[in-house]
Amino acid sequence: MFEQIERVPGDAILGLIEAFKKDPNPQKVDLGVGVYRDAHGNTPVMRAVKEAESRLLKNETTKSYIGSHGDPRYGQAVLELVLGAQSPVLAANRASATQSPGGTGALRLAADFIKSQLPGKGIWVSDPTWPNHLGIFHAAGVELKKYPYVDADNRLDFDGMLGALQQIPEGDVVLLHACCHNPSGFDLSREQWQRVLEVVRERRLLPLVDFAYQGFGDGLDADAYGPRLLAENLDEVMITSSCSKNFGVYRERTGCMIMIARDSEQMENVRSQMAIVARENYSNPPAHGGAVVAEILHDEALATVWREELTEMRDRINGLRRDFVEALKPYGLDERFAFIAEQRGMFSYTGLSPAQVDRLRDEFGIYMVRSGRANVAGLAQENLPYVAKAIATVVG
Ligand code: PLP
Ligand code: TYF
User: Fold this and answer.
1) pTM for the full model?
2) Does residue 3 fall inside a structural domain?
């Protein structure tokens, strides 16, 4: 049977990890895969996470199943983090949380829910988007279409986006990045979110908000502006949340599928279906990451430590954005690349062509995705001049 199986190339982004490791260039710089790095290039375990884990190790009493919706303490903590502790949506008991294996697991739950409970509905994703979005909805058998997001001059194409949303058939699902758009780094302003809300309401679309970088843009609450606006002004919203980046628990697979319905009654109906979707995929989610997050968020002192660490990470990224534009000044390129300081999150669409990206890798050992996406967190004060000079060389 297997003799007919074709070999296919691996994930282009994850493949950069291997390629980078093999490169003997001592000056090499990894701007590839989207994990946070500190000033020394490490992705350390956060202090609040270490402390929570040591408490768990001491106090954990069982490894029995936690149920298809996961740990209710985790679910409640994530609902408050995402929607705000004072959210009218929570007060009205309109929101349900299902713990999932990462944001990816939540996206698969969303996709399977759409396929089984909203038959015939398609999903619209930004062009470009995280490549895994395409794979997940394809695998679930949901028809996928694209709306414009970045134009040929490497700018946010909001008019194109809005125009496309106005054409989407009633009831279709539209996937929006809450903040820190992956791959572009271009986010919507508050006015633009308001316009999106109006179109979604008029066209009776169902928003699915992917929230993988809460706290990496402008702050925990500021980054939640879009999802909260939609949740408070629409009857139905789906949100996929991830703790991978903001708690640095990538490999623990810690995410959440949030379903918001018109009232408590409909929310319970939706919730009962979501349990089936989870059960048919993996039965119960992994417990450890959720337990860590719940331990932190339910302890004010520990939560304060975590928020401080997250602020440090965000400030480092936003500082590097500004410093990188400065580093390009000696080459007269600061105005051309000024947008890098305006983009948010770990990623920047640099506007570099695949050929320029290839030259950066081959001549300078600088690795980024061929789309021109750079992980800003891979920069450091020591390599800024080197990277700036390399970019000046390949664009020059
Ligand atoms: N959505 C986006 C836009 C992402 O960039 C990621 C990052 O990997 C995810 C979802 C899923 O993250 P994870 O499954 O690691 O929680
Ligand atoms: O976009 C990124 O780099 C992160 C990490 O299949 C990632 O979201 C990349 C590819 C992938 C899974 C995670």
Assistant:
1) 0.97
2) no
